[in-house]
Amino acid sequence: MTHHRRPPRQDERGFVMVYTMIALFALMAVAAIGIDLGHLAFTASEVQSAAEVAATAGATALLNGGSVQGDALAAAAQNTIHGNSVTAANLPMIESGNFDNGTFASGGLPANAVRATASVMAHNLLGGILGQPESPIFKRATATFSPTGRVRTEGPFALCNGFDPNCSDNNCPPHTLQLQTPGGSFWTAFFAPAMTPTDVRTYFPLECGGDSTPMPILDVNDHLHQGIYPSWRLSAADQLGLLTSLNCVLGLGTKQFLVPIVSCSGNLQEIQTVLGFATIVIDSIDASLGTLTLHQVVDVAHPGPPAPLSDVRTGLPSDAKTGFVTLVSVS
Question: Is 64 helix (H, G, I), strand (E, B) or coil?
């Protein structure tokens, strides 16, 4: 007995064709999703690397007194995103600030950390078909430094924590201040508990009425005495004498000083804690008014000098600040 196979009907062949096309489309969609996800993951890793490199370089510059923005961008430019070198457009935010207890405060002092935000628009294969050809990718990294060295200060006075954390070498505004005012910047003999104007003057060079006593080496969290014994205030004659000695130092060619930064809270009888250090240039002194005008020459008041400086009073080099930089947060 012979059996004859029934040829498929026309409508059956049509269903097979439809199912095949649906299956192919599903396979292509899955492949496109896989390609998009792989591409996004790879791009995200590139963006994260750019943020980490920028934050680390910026924190290193903060420690050494370099240019936070410039060093961060230069280091990040050695990396690529989508095959192109990282540019400033990929790093919309590079912030200096304070990192404490797991929290970063932009512009906070003392500045001990840099946070970098990197971004790029990633191209989508399937998203382009569905009307979303690009997806934004943002990554952030924070690096902080821990100082391991100490700093030789450059002048017998301390300044209040009032510098602009966002200014740079070329646009830091001038400050006019009077030393030894309640709650303000002050002369100091550093660790002398009952100091006199003579104790302060001893740190000036011989040519300027001092004894060329070497400046002490300080560190963050050291405590400085700010009172002038016994009245806790300078007389006009004493203020004039100290400013005259300082003006003499300027006349010898030294106008740049590495000085401690303190909070300047309370009265003149209190001990102040060193928050960090800043390098400043004294532009002018008005001894008759008891004021001096200065500006900072680093981008933030930070715990460390911008570079080893020559101490003209002792002929010894200042101790360079050393430390190590650590990534503390990535997202």
Answer: helix
